[in-house]
Amino acid sequence: MTDQGPDPSVLKSQADEAENTRKYFSNDGKKERERWVVEHWAVALGRSIANLKESEAPDFVADGDGVEVVEVQPPERRRGDEYRADRDALAQGKLPEWKNWVSFELVQAEGYDWIGDAISAKAQKYGEAAKDWTLVVYANYGWWEETDWDAVGKIVQESVETFASIHVLGAGGETVVRIKS
């Protein structure tokens, strides 16, 4: 007897869930994802947020403090296309193609640039208006902890004058790296 793989009818039944995942990670799900980031950031710091309100600039006000969120992924990743392809494969009763978006070596070589570029872009966008805000960077990529944090700190020190503090929340939502406090 040979293994035939997953039953296509079971895979097809998962297509709706794949569509829900795609929607969550689309622009329509952005505020919900940002809320998840802020809530996990607060828990990781042992901070209780009694009053978290959505805002436009910054993204949230947490107990009176402005919190801006930015997500960082590998630059080549196109998550919407990826999830759409996964949903379509499941709807056809096929397993989605496995993708490895990032390697240990790539994160060590370039991860600090991804984080630094995201921080710099937010600083340029908001300038002096963000001087009292906290920027929470969500490092949403594998091997995120191998990012050269000293290089990120150097980028911030040399070119970012805004934000009262800058923290990076790791991909699992459990660890925070403080870049600027």
What's the short version?
This protein has 181 residues and is an alpha/beta fold.
Structural overview:
Helix 2 packs antiparallel against helix 4 (79-91) and helix 5 (104-126) runs parallel beside helix 6 (149-159). By secondary structure, this protein is of the alpha/beta class. It has helices at 8-13, 15-24, 30-45, 79-91, 104-126, 149-159; strands spanning 52-54, 60-62, 65-72, 134-139, 165-169, 176-180. Helix content is 44%, strand content 17%. The chain has six helices and six strands, in the order αααβββααβαββ. The chain is globular and about 55 Å long. The relative contact order is 0.15. The protein has a six-stranded mixed sheet, sandwiched between helices.
